[in-house]
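I'd like us to work through together how a protein chain folds, taking it slowly. To get us started, please write out a protein record for me. Go ahead whenever you are ready, and we will take it from there:
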Amino acid sequence: MTRSDATTVTVQRDVPFQEVGDEVLHLDLYEATATNGPKPMAVLVRGGGFAVGDKGEFARHAIDLAEAGYLVVEPQYRLAPAWTFPAPLVDVKAAVEWCRAEGEAYGGDPTRVVAAGHSAGANLVVLAAATADDPAFEPDLYPGTSSALSAVAGYAGVYDFRAFARLDETEHDVDTHAQYLGGTPGEVPEAYELASPVAQADVSMPSTLLLHGRDDAVIPHSRQH
């Protein structure tokens, strides 16, 4: 339990939301006890190059959003190299669909679900918005439940893997993307296309906010055009 001057935020940790074979993924759920429902719901997805990290990295942001009146979830997702695209995308969509299927029991509004992500997480939430309800990327646990988002925000994300595929290895660690996408651009060009939000977005995209630092040396701003 975390306290602020205005309200109390309760955190329910390790709530199961996605099962793949013998693997169970969990999310953390943040709720402000002083706010009344139905609350809009926010899915926060961390970065980590698709290969490292765990839920909890967005805890400070989750608390702030909960205090602002959101029901907030921060999910795990499967990591490379054990898992490749589209496994993490399916997991993020499972978190969105969990909000619709289960969030109402916690005071959430299933008609208002938004998402925000950083770095790899930015790619995943924006791609989730661009491929809403696409049967090729939907989880099995919530049949008939929509993965559509009302709005999405990305911080320092990769939105076009094809642009990075043209980089020289001295400019960027292209092996990171090959590990996640299951091969090089020459080996699996379709993965580089399908995993790029700019290639999948159309007029059905919800309201989208993309923020990127001009001096970002990890994911250069110039490569996001």
About this structure: The longest helix spans residues 87-102. The mean pLDDT is 90.
